[in-house]
Write a structure and sequence with these properties.
The chain is an alpha/beta fold. The chain has 3 domains: 100 residues, no CATH class; 159 residues, 2-Layer Sandwich (Nucleotidyltransferase, domain 5); 150 residues, no CATH class. A 5-stranded mixed sheet has the order 10-9-8-11-12, sandwiched between helices. A 4-stranded mixed sheet has the order 1-2-5-4. Strand 11, helix 7 and strand 12 form a beta-alpha-beta unit. The longest helix has 36 residues. The radius of gyration is 30 Å and the shape is elongated. The protein starts with a helix and ends in a 27-residue tail after the last helix. The structure holds zinc ion.
């Protein structure tokens, strides 16, 4: 085998002839290889849009370069002269090359290796470092791979039965993205910038009548526009509320109680200090001890946000101690905590009748509790009573929904550096799908046929 044909195999490109190569150094003084090639007769010259064989129009540049995967420590580029062709349909366009997608200055293998690393959870910094490229470029490569692996996204709309609509904020809450999830496959089927009625209507208008009719369940937070959209577009769908949103509402109510309790404790402390100064008992040992204890109480309440919000089974010992101290110092706050917990556990029930009884019991409790934040929460829960019961009746798994939601949040954080919103959406669509990204040159595993998903909706 000649060096040229060895190189051709190492570059992993077919239908190409290696003319020569230069081994040298890149701008950073690292080893670099430029392989000059020309496209073989069989693949010459095709329109990048329709793939039709075309006549050469002209040669505008001498040689263009594409980044290829590294060979060992060596940075590799492919160099070739490519003409513009005249396609009867698409006009004058730069001819297609077999190793890269139109318009890309990176080989397809390079793009796949980038997407593989990002999907594998490698950090922004590591991917950029490994590939010697910036993060924005990685984003474009991910987008390219997504389009390559899934040319027809609308296929994801076929056979939808249980869907979830979720809006997630990013850029510190300044921007929103709306995501539609297929609960039966835990994949994202649609994502778009913005949120609200108009955005979700865009999604439903992309569906055929048949596709809309197959949807039997729509879940989301408590937003009115989700209820309206479900009613308007999905004639057969039941509206559900994702349990983690309900728990979030309860946690918000609990936190507003905590802040009130903290203010009360702080005011009591200030009063205590004032009195002790006035009464000249600043040096009284008991008074000093009482003030010390009051200060401790204020601090405990201040720092208890996470302990109160967490599921009790996940508490650390320190957080358990903190709650015990609050129990002693502020029983009302712990009553709020008990109400939050009770509400959360309703979603764990599998018997719909029992869940209904428990929820109604809870609603009565909220009405009588005389804690303004929970009275208010009770009213909100009452408005969504039917939606909550639908969730229990259909056994929507909160853990899975929350896991998908957290994955999207994580992806948005990873994609935060992308200036282009489409790149972010590409990342979400690719990563919240069942699509496997093959590493270049590896044999792909046979796709596992999970069989048709049969879902019953109560
Ligand atoms: Zn064409």
């Amino acid at each position: 085998m000649t060096a040229n044909s060895l190189l051709k195999n190492l570059l992993h490109i077919k239908g190409t002839v290696v003319d020569s190569f230069d081994l040298g150094e890149n701008a950073k003084g690292e080893p670099s290889l430029v392989v000059h090639v020309h496209v073989g007769k069989g693949l010459r010259w095709r329109c990048p849009v329709c793939g039709k064989k075309c006549h050469v129009h002209d040669y505008v540049c001498d040689e263009a370069f594409w980044r290829s995967m590294d060979l060992g420590p060596v940075e590799v580029r492919i160099g070739a002269r490519v003409p513009r062709v005249r396609c009867p349909v698409d006009g004058v366009v730069t001819a297609a090359v077999p190793w890269a997608k139109p318009g890309s200055r990176f080989t397809t293998d390079f793009a796949f290796s980038a997407a593989w690393m990002v999907k594998g959870g490698l950090s922004k910094k590591k991917v950029s470092e490994r590939l010697r490229t910036d993060w924005e470029t990685v984003g474009h490569l991910v987008d390219l791979v997504w389009h390559e692996l899934e040319p027809d996204v609308k296929k994801r709309f076929d056979g939808l039965v249980r869907i979830g609509i979720d809006e997630t904020s990013y850029r510190k809450g300044h921007s929103y993205i709306t995501v539609v999830v297929n609960h039966d496959t835990n994949t994202v089927v649609w994502a778009h910038k913005g949120h609200g009625k108009e955005i979700i209507e865009m999604f439903f208008s992309e569906l055929t009548e048949e596709q809309r009719a197959s949807i039997l369940l729509v879940s989301g937070d408590g937003a009115r526009w989700i209820t309206d959209a479900a009613k308007d577009f999905c004639p057969n769908a039941r509206r559900c509320v994702d349990p983690f949103h309900v728990v979030e509402w309860a946690n918000e109510a609990l936190d507003s109680m905590r802040i009130d309790a903290w203010r009360r404790a702080r005011a009591a402390l200030a009063e205590m200090v004032r009195k002790s100064k006035e009464g000249g008992s600043a040096n009284d040992r008991d008074a000093r001890e009482r003030i010390r204890q009051a200060k401790k109480d204020v601090e405990q309440i201040k720092q208890s946000k996470y302990a109160l919000g967490k599921n009790p089974e996940n508490l650390t010992t320190k957080q358990q101690e903190r709650l015990a101290l609050i129990q002693a110092g502020d029983p009302q706050l712990m009553r709020g905590h008990a109400m939050k917990e009770k509400l959360r556990l309703i979603f764990k029930l599998t018997d719909p009748t029992l869940a209904e009884e428990e929820l109604d019991g809870w609603l009565g409790w909220a009405q009588r509790c005389r804690i303004p934040a929970f009275v208010e929460l009770g009213r909100k829960i009452r408005r969504h009573r039917e939606h909550i019961l639908n969730t229990v009746r259909n056994g929507l798994s909160n853990a899975r929904i929350e896991a998908t939601n957290n994955k999207i949040k994580l992806l948005l954080r990873v994609a935060y550096g992308f200036r282009n919103i489409d790149t972010m959406i590409g990342l979400i669509m690719l990563f919240c799908s069942s699509i496997e990204i093959p590493w270049p040159g590896r044999k792909q595993k046979e796709p596992i046929n999970k069989g048709a998903i049969t879902t019953q909706v109560a």
